[in-house]
Amino acid sequence: ALYERLFEWLIKYINKTLSQDDNKRIENSRIIGVLDIYGFEVFENNSFEQLCINYCNEKLQQLFIELVLKQEQDEYESENITWQHIDYFNNKIICDLIEQPRIGIFAYLDEACQIVGTVTDDMFLKSINTAFKNHNHYSSWNLTPGDKIWKNIDTNKLFLVRHYAGDVAYSVDGFLDKNRDTLFDDFKRLLFNSKNAILSSMWPDGEKSITAVTRRPLTAATIFRNSMINLSNLLSSKQPFYIRCIKPNDEKSPNVFDLTRIQHQIGYLGLLENVRVRRAGFCHRVPYDRFVQRYKIIDCVRANLYPNGPFNKESVAYICMELDISNDVVYGNTKLFIRKPISLFQLEKKRTEGLQPIITMLQAHLRSSIQYRKFRRENSAIKIQNYYRRYRIRTYINQINELFNKHLGKNIIWPKPSSRSLKTIHNLFKQIYQRWRIYKIQQQLPIEQRATFELKLQTGKYLQQRSSFFDINIYQEWKGDYLNLLEENPRLNEYKKSINELRTKDKFDKIIFSTYAIKLNSHIKMDERAIVLTDKCIYKLDQKKHFHVKKTPIPVDEIIGLSVTSGKEQLIVIHLMSKHDLVFYMLTKMDRVGEFVGYMAKIKEKSTDFSVDVQRYVSTNISKHQYVINIIWDHVSKVEFRKGSNNNISLVLPEER
């Protein structure tokens, strides 16, 4: 444990030393990272360590399949490019066998470690034999004792996983001991309280008191699985380039090539499928808008037809015909595919030739601009004299306008009327001023936002205690059906199909608001849902099941009020007549609580019992039991609902940085 903590501290210290202080420079820079992957390990005696290492290889091989093979073929299919489909083996089934929550090998191992009482490695082996007896990529000595792979093996403590790189038999001896965290919390607190600053910083979890530690420490399998999931998510957001190393022989001898060994490695690394995909594809592909923007200078005759567009297939075809490369390109739905590199070189050469007259023109404009600025400087003195003569004249007017300048008189303290007769005029002036100020604000807004401006003002009456509404939402564009936007919902087609079916079935007029959210169910558990508000009811759609409706939709007539927090949290509680409230947290980076409240208030504007409650701690009824929801900011990666004691529910949010 000391070695592990010291190694982690050393890595963090090195990264902190090498990091740059200029955050803007880091955000705009490009980063190259090098990842050295574990080698696939097969020994005579394979234990828990080899299972973790080989699981890492399975996970990274799955990522390679998704990023290189599958994406390449999916792109051709989405662009409607005719080509020969290449079959490949997807090892996701093997990864699920090991990592799948509750029903994977790691899950059964964690369950065995958490059982109270005497639990042995043999009992763990029996449990996974029962669970995976029909799995095509799992076997054991107990399930198939007559299999030739168990020949000359006199133990029944083995199970076999058919990895993409080959079959590996693992011995369960020591699995439970290696998976448990046997380091006591007393030892962590002892080292945290050390006078040595470095030693104390290595044990931050020792800061918690005995009463604060209520959960068991994570097992080694869980920690390793979470690390691999985080690594896969990180690599998925980058553009990877792979270097595949082939081991020529097992003797580490030069000039010795074991053909059987090499062919086996080429097969399980998927290199043949990768070569077939690359050979059947194109050397370069580029969206139409980027192609026209870069190469429109080549088509000099039609250059004035698209200074800023159109960036479509016809514009691309004009440029390709100009260079006579139409036979070497294929037009997709949104991209141009170039087959040979020589055509790309020809495009770049022609573009370079066309840049020369443009550079000359820019130089001429720059020289004339320099002379023009010089001329303006010579006349500056005369202009300053003229402006200064008018300055004193405008002083009085500017002092008055200063009250109504940037904030349209927002901070003006109106004078109190000196007599009762002036009260009516005073109130009338204030009304005129308020209408004038609202008119000026409306004029500053885009035309498409003015329609919802009045609704925003009405919403402000409900959210006076929520300061973020007036800072953000009043100037923020309200789009309502966000799941109908491709930038908000990558699965737009599935969503539209589900909505069309619901519109045909329930006969509602339109969708007013939609968003992704984490919903709290009747068992105080979290469900990922798509919340859709229509003019008749609220739907809870399961985004993992093609946006199918979960349970019965909630009619808007059943809604009697809303509760939101006074901070920036995106928590919404919809109070119902049935005393079973709908509680959800919107998964959005923008503050859309005000927008939802505004649309709901407009629907319920004729209802006399509708109200909006803004509090720091929100109360709710779930299954006819009253709970209080507390807001906690912690070091978590995503939003969580946690059930506490005394009818308390904690909403845990990622800590802002």
Record the SSE blueprint.
Elements: H1 2-18, H2 23-28, H3 48-78, H4 92-99, H5 105-114, H6 121-131, E1 138-140, E2 158-163, E3 166-171, H7 175-179, H8 185-192, H9 197-201, H10 220-236, H11 259-268, H12 271-280, E4 284-287, H13 288-295, H14 313-323, E5 329-331, E6 335-338, H15 341-378, H16 380-401, H17 421-444, H18 447-450, H19 453-462, H20 467-473, H21 492-506, E7 511-520, E8 526-534, E9 537-542, E10 548-549, E11 554-555, E12 559-565, E13 571-576, E14 582-586, H22 593-603, E15 611-615, E16 618-622, E17 625-634, E18 640-643, E19 648-654
Parallel strand pairs: 12-15, 17-19
Antiparallel strand pairs: 1-2, 2-3, 4-6, 5-6, 7-8, 7-14, 8-9, 9-10, 9-11, 12-13, 13-14, 16-17, 18-19
Could you describe the 3D structure shown?
This protein is of the alpha+beta class. Among the domains are: 287-357, no CATH class; 477-654, PH-domain like, CATH 2.30.29.30. The chain is built from 22 helices and 19 strands. The strands form four sheets. Strands 7, 8, 9, 10, 11, 12, 13, 14 and 15 form a nine-stranded mixed β-sheet that branches. A four-stranded mixed β-sheet has the order 16-17-19-18, with no helix packed on it. Strand 8 and strand 9 (537-542) form a beta hairpin. Helix 3 (48-78) packs parallel to helix 10 and helix 5 packs across helix 6. The protein is globular, with a radius of gyration of 34 Å. The mean pLDDT is 81.
